[in-house]
Design goal:
Strand content: 5-15%
Distance between the termini: 133 Å
Structural class: alpha+beta
Radius of gyration: 45 Å
Number of helices: 5
Order of helices and strands: HHEEHEEHHEE
Strand order of the largest sheet: 1-2
Length: 178
């Protein structure tokens, strides 16, 4: 019996059996396989978009209270010159020196220190500007304008030169510096 229930005579004169494969079956199988691949790729694309949307949505919703900021993740100062976050804190904010030569840090610090020694160091807090340091010339002028009072109090002088010895058991300044 041959394929599909038909009776087929076998030719024994040939060393092989006749092949009865039809082109219609090959074409149908190829089209079905192609359509299955297209549907699978489309479903995977839809799934990928859905998962990405869900991940971004969950990232927005979950605020981690213990999560460290980018500044906290950096190692403590001093850092290598090429490392992320390498820079100098100046009164005007942080100066980024990541891709600059190592001497750039020294140059920036020299500029900051020269400006502070010439103008003084000031800090703005709560809308008020507080002077922390003054240039020496300006400090002398302010001191002389206030008037310097001479130390006429002998008790203060005695306390300044006296020190506690073991003889008084720390109760009173018993000896004085010479």
């Amino acid at each position: 019996m041959g394929s599909h229930g038909k009776k087929v005579e076998i030719d024994t004169s040939k060393g092989y059996e006749k092949n009865e494969i039809q082109l219609r079956g090959i074409v149908v199988t190829t089209i079905a396989l192609f359509l299955t691949c297209v549907v699978a790729f489309y479903l995977m694309y839809v799934l990928q978009n859905y998962m990405e949307a869900a991940w971004t949505e969950s990232d927005k919703q979950t605020a981690h209270p213990m999560e460290r900021s980018a500044k906290d993740k950096l190692p403590p100062e001093p850092r290598l010159q090429a490392a992320p976050g390498f820079g100098v804190d100046s009164p005007n904010g942080r100066i980024n020196l990541e891709l600059k030569p190592p001497q750039a840090e020294w140059r920036e610090l020299q500029k900051i220190w020269a400006k502070e020694s010439a103008e003084g160091q000031k800090v703005a807090k709560d809308g008020k500007e507080t002077i922390i340091t003054l240039p020496i010339a300006e400090a002398k002028k302010q001191l002389l304008s206030q008037g310097v009072k001479a130390a006429a109090d002998n008790k203060a002088i005695d306390e300044a030169i006296g020190f506690y010895s073991g003889a008084s058991a720390g109760r009173m300044a018993s000896e004085s510096r010479r």
